[in-house]
Amino acid sequence: MKDIVLAKFAEVFGDTKEAKVYFAPGRVNLIGEHTDYNGGHVFPCALTIGTYGVARKREDNKLRFYSMNFEQLGIIESSLDDLKPYKEADWTNYPKGVMWAFGEKGMKVPSGMDILLNGNIPNGSGLSSSASVEVLTGHILRDLFGFEVSNQELALIGQFSENKFNGVNCGIMDQFAIAMGKKDNAIFLDTANLEFTYAPIMLEGAKIVISCSNKKRGLGDSKYNERRQECEDALAALQTVLDIKSLGELDEETFEKNAAVIGDEVKIRRARHAVYENQRTVKAVEALNANNVELFGKLMNASHDSLRDDYEVTGIELDTLVDEARKVDGVIGSRMTGAGFGGCTVSLVKDEAIDEFIEQVGKNYKEKIGYAADFYVVSVGDGPCTL
Predict the structure, then answer these.
(1) Is 174 a catalytic residue?
(2) Does pTM surpass 0.85?
C-alpha cells in the first residue's frame, strides 16, 4: 500500500520529494454500544484496515487534499486562513477540523500541506472512517510540525473537532480506540474518566468477521443526536432522586427501582439500554479474561437485542445480518456495531464456519434486502504510525 499511495501522490502532486507516509486504523466495537456518551464502558479494538496518508509541508498556507476513495472530486483546495466547515469541502472537513482544533488548543499549524488519503475501511460502514481520518491527521501534524501531543490527546482533539467543527455530538470511543490501539488487544475503557486497560483477544479457533450492510448512513443527519438527548432527559429525571453524574453509574437493580421517575416510556427504554449495556460490557470483559468466549458471545447477542428493542437503532438491514448469522453453526455471537441505522455487524465465528457464514448470510441477506453485503475477516492491530 505504501508504494501505491506514493505513486498516486506523485501523479497528483507532481513528485514525492519530502513526502512521508502514515497510517491510522479503523475500529470495531465488540460490545458497549451507545454507552460512551452515557458515562459507561466500551470495548473496542483497532483493526489492521484503516486510512493511509501521504503528506508534505508547503511554503505557503494552501491546503491541497486528494482522496483515492473519492477520485471524482479531484484535488480539493483550502487554506489555513479559512478553516471553516463548508458543504462543498466534503470529506476534507474532517482533516480541516483537526487542524482547526490544534489551533484552538494553542498549536497553530504553521504552513500548508499537500495531503493524499486512501482508506480501505468501507465508507459509511460504521467502522469509523471519519475518526480514522481525524487521528491520522493529528498524527501527521504531530510528526511534520513537532507538536508534543500524546496518542490520548490525539483522540481528544479528534473528538473535539468532530463535536465543534463538524457538529456531530460523538463520544470519545472511536478516536480513543484508534489512537490507543494495541495489536491483539481490545481496550476496556471507562468513558466517564478515560481509565482503561488492555484485554488480550485470544479467540482460539475463531475470528472476528465484519458484515457490512452497504446501507449508507450519516451520523449527523441520523437519529444519533436524538437518542443522546433522550438519554440526557432520562438522566436529568433520575438525578432528582439519585446522586449520579451519568447513567453509567447505575446497576440494573437501582435503575429498575427508580425508572418510573423518568415518566416517559420511550426514554425509560433508552436509559435501560444504556444501563444494561454498560453492565453487559463489564461482564463480557470478565468472561474474556476467564477465557469464556461462549459467554462473551451470549452477551454480544443480548447487546444486539437491546439495541433493536430498547434503543431502536438497528433497522431491517442490521437485523437481517444478525438473524442470518445466528442460524449458522459455529457463530459464537453476533451484533450490530457502531451507531446503527446501517453500517456493520460484528460476529465471532469459528474458523471452520467462516466460509459457510459468508456464503449463507450473504445469500439470504441479498434475497431479503435486494443488494449484497460485504464481509471482512479482520485482525486486531496497533494505533497510528509512520510507515
Answers:
(1) yes
(2) yes
